[in-house]
Amino acid sequence: MGQEVLRDISFRIPERSFQFLTGPSGTGKTTLLRLLFMSLKPTRGLVTIFGKDRSRITPQELPLIRRKIGMVFQDFRLLDHLTTYENVALPLRVRGREESSYKNDVTDLLKWVGLGDRMHVLPPVLSGGEKQRAAIARALVEQPSILLADEPTGNVDPQLARRLLRLFIELNRMGTAVLIATHDLGLMDQVDARRMVLSGGRLEIYD
């Protein structure tokens, strides 16, 4: 059995809320996000997602519930053979939707994150900041109720970090709950938001 990363933690994410998850590297921030995204099952304890016990969610229900959760991964996870537009639209294509039903929405979303002129280029051509914004757009394309972001500003300069933060704040104002995992104290100081601090596998919350 592997080492237990998280122990005896308890918290909830209210609708339309904004919070940071922080703590030293290796304390379990990514693990906690994976539990919330349901890509990882807890070894014990209760994880409730939109009122449903994670242990009781069937494989058939899982994709439907996960559509309500947007996830921005630390390593972007863009497909190099698809354009920026195609990467962002991919979750909708996988669902079988016709392009005519989402083309305008995807285009508007890419303009919103500042990639209106980069829609038709491949990821290897994009800068790190542009890849991050493309990953954010992809996470938002299904209009999730909650957005989880794992170190979204870890690979960009301070100016771009502030721009990305403004995108998250605007998204939150539009009604999406936002949880950002970061160790960037300067970034967190720019927003009056709840901080959840992981240390030694335990969680402390500062409202």
From TrEMBL:
Alphabetized PROSITE patterns for the sequence: ABC_TRANSPORTER_1 (PS00211), ABC_TRANSPORTER_2 (PS50893)
UniProt entry tagged with the keyword Endoplasmic reticulum: no
Localization per record: Cell inner membrane; Cell membrane
Membrane association type: Peripheral membrane protein
Database matches in Pfam families: ABC_tran
Segments forming domain ABC transporter: 1-205
GO CC terms, sorted: plasma membrane
Keyword RNA-binding found: no
One Gene Ontology MF term: ATP binding
UniProt record, GO biological process: cell division
Keywords noted in UniProt: ATP-binding, Cell cycle, Cell division, Cell membrane, Membrane, Nucleotide-binding
UniProt-listed InterPro entries: AAA+_ATPase, ABC_transporter-like_ATP-bd, ABC_transporter-like_CS, ABC_transpr_LolD-like, Cell_div_FtsE, P-loop_NTPase
Gene3D superfamilies tied to this protein: P-loop containing nucleotide triphosphate hydrolases (3.40.50.300)
SMART domains for the chain: AAA (SM00382)
TM ranges: none
Subunit description: Homodimer. Forms a membrane-associated complex with FtsX.
Family named by the database record: Belongs to the ABC transporter superfamily.
Functional description taken from the UniProt entry: Part of the ABC transporter FtsEX involved in cellular division. Important for assembly or stability of the septal ring.
Protein name as catalogued: Cell division ATP-binding protein FtsE
